[in-house]
Design a protein that fits this description.
By secondary structure, the chain is an alpha+beta fold. Helices cover 36% and strands 43% of the residues. The protein is built from three helices and five strands; from the N terminus they run βαββααββ. It has a five-stranded antiparallel sheet.
């Protein structure tokens, strides 16, 4: 199993669109083979910052997720709303590593 966690911050004007896109992303991602947990939530006190938390059966399942159509759609929306910061990490064997 591997864990993906981190934060994504979007421009304040893009929050509503980012939330709608995240809801669609979560609904589709949890159906993917190898997805154990997939969560995307707003951080209290920071409406434009989101916490990402994912658990995957293995690296192959995560790689398949990266090529899913709903991932491409989500990435496109993030491009439209303007990501102001993103820190996403993969945790393998208890060690936190940059995702890419």
């Amino acid at each position: 199993m591997l864990i993906v966690t981190g934060t994504v911050e979007v421009s304040p004007d893009g929050v509503e669109k980012a939330v709608a896109a995240a809801q669609r992303m979560v609904a589709e991602t949890v159906k993917e083979p190898g997805c154990l947990i997939y969560e995307f939530s707003q951080i209290l006190g920071h409406a434009n910052r989101f916490r990402v938390y994912e658990e995957w059966q293995d690296q192959a399942a995560l790689e398949a997720h990266f090529t899913a159509p709903h991932m491409a759609e989500f990435q496109a929306v993030l491009g439209e709303v303007g990501v102001t910061s993103s820190e996403i990490y993969r945790v393998v064997g208890g060690e936190k590593q940059p995702l890419r």
